[in-house]
Write a structure and sequence with these properties.
The complex is a heterodimer. Helices cover about 35% and strands about 25% of the residues of chain A. Chain A is built from 4 helices and 6 strands. In chain A, the strands form 2 sheets. In chain A, strands 2-3-5-6 form a 4-stranded antiparallel β-sheet. A two-stranded antiparallel ribbon of chain A has the order 1-4. In chain A, strand 5 and strand 6 form a beta hairpin. Chain A starts with 7 loop residues before the first helix and ends in a 5-residue tail after the last strand. In chain B, about 15% of the residues lie in helices and about 30% in strands. Chain B contains 4 helices and 17 strands. Chain B has a 5-stranded antiparallel β-sheet with strand order 3-4-5-6-7, with no helix packed on it. In chain B, strands 11, 12, 13, 15 and 16 form a 5-stranded antiparallel β-sheet that branches. A 3-stranded antiparallel β-sheet of chain B has the order 8-10-14, with no helix packed on it. In chain B, a hairpin with a 3-residue loop joins strand 3 and strand 4. Chain B starts with 6 loop residues before the first helix and ends in a 7-residue tail after the last strand. The chains are: A alpha+beta, B alpha+beta. The interface between A and B is large, with 84 and 63 residues.
Amino acid sequence: MRTRQPAYLGSALLAVALLLGGTGCGNRPGSAAPRDTGPGPAASADARVAEAEESALAAYAGYLAAVRKAEQAGDPLDPQLRKYLADPLLTRVRLTIRDAKEHGAMRTGKLVSNPTVTAIDLDSDPATVSIQDCIDATGYRLVYKKDRKVVPGSASGRHLATATATRYPDGRWLINIGASYQDQPC
Amino acid sequence: MLTRQGPAWRTSAVRAWRGPAGEAVAVSSRRALAAGAVAVLALAAALTVSGTPAAAAPGAECPPGQANCDVWEHLPGEPGGDDDGGGSGDGGGSGRGNRVCERDDGTRVPCYDDVLGWFNSADDCYYKRAEPQPPDAEPGRTAYLRTCSAAGSSELVYLTDPPAGFAPPDPEQMALDLFARLTLDPPRIRTAPSDAPGLVGVPVWLHDASSWETERETATEGGVTVWIEAIPTKIVWRMGNGESLECSTAGIPFKAGVHDPRRPPRQACAYAGYPRASSTRPGGRYEITAVKHWTVPWGSSTGEGDEDALSTERTDTASIRIDELQVVTR
């Protein structure tokens, strides 16, 4: 009864990961981009895809960095968060930071991220980019501020995370959906 | 309980919110949630691939980089509780008077929570305007993030009217408050000549030594962030003889040996020269008045704002003596 998630969750998630075009970690980005058009349009389409991919990954990296800063400052309303995040994930992240703060804790240390793009959809409205990350949180600890002791049960290792970057009308790419799967090692 | 209005009520409210029935119930409902979430997740992923944005994140997952977000629910009586410091500054910190609302079961909760928004007693959910508004919101509808029970079960809902209890401050009023609190440097008049008298027909160099940087102020209240900018646009120099001159920059100070007083460069702000001496003026001097103008655009997280609604000005005065040009004849 103490396990975090039911056993079948694992296979379900794997299916989702496969659906997204990846095999866990290390798949090549951009594979989902259409490549069968003529040379002219293909070049510009490729440029659009590359730009979307780059912007989405930049937003994702900015998001992780902003969260780390906000965690250490214990500030759920850190204005940096709004630069990279959108609701509903924005509020979820804020709640998580506040939760830690209210328990006298914070996340600190080194978080290793290794994101790849698994799908790009520029024809939909809004355009979206799906990101998959193999996060190594081994050195990223949830500690009590008082004595720096690790919060029991909070240790984490290498695991899968997914995120969606969405293009907003002002042209910004923001991460609006995201989840981590502790039970999915990578 | 009613006599204590401090962080204490908030702490108890948060606990009750997590489920007063005890950990067993809370945990088992969480299981159900997690199981349901798998289906939602699969659906969301499929939707993302097919191009339709997933409207709501699945309920119970932790964000990337915060995989242990639910660790607190598995900790019986954790030691590091920070009840004194933790609650202050959150929830009631909006300046909205720490109003208290009541859930159906009688639990008292803050009417406004600075992360979740405004409490709607009709459905016991918190609502905040989605930040930013999603691209696919239909015209005439506003996207709100609704949070009804455990943390993480927020979802976007699209409403034509704000939900009951939704009472964010008026962004325009907040902008006006910021505007009223702006501290802007008045101009600091520097003229050349200044100590020695000037001469009729010789240019008077005008320079404002105050800052021409754009000033920015922001305020956040009740989930609404408002920012204003004060941008210096021009300075009007009234020369004291009925003439005036307008410059779009602060001008430049006159440097002896570098500048020719009779040939001010382009970036200088110079009055072409007084036609008459100041001897007939009160005190034998012309009074110069400099009026510096700012335009003050404002904007807000709700999208409301105005580029040119507000403007302001500050004034400084100085005086200058102008003598006749002495023609030496023999």
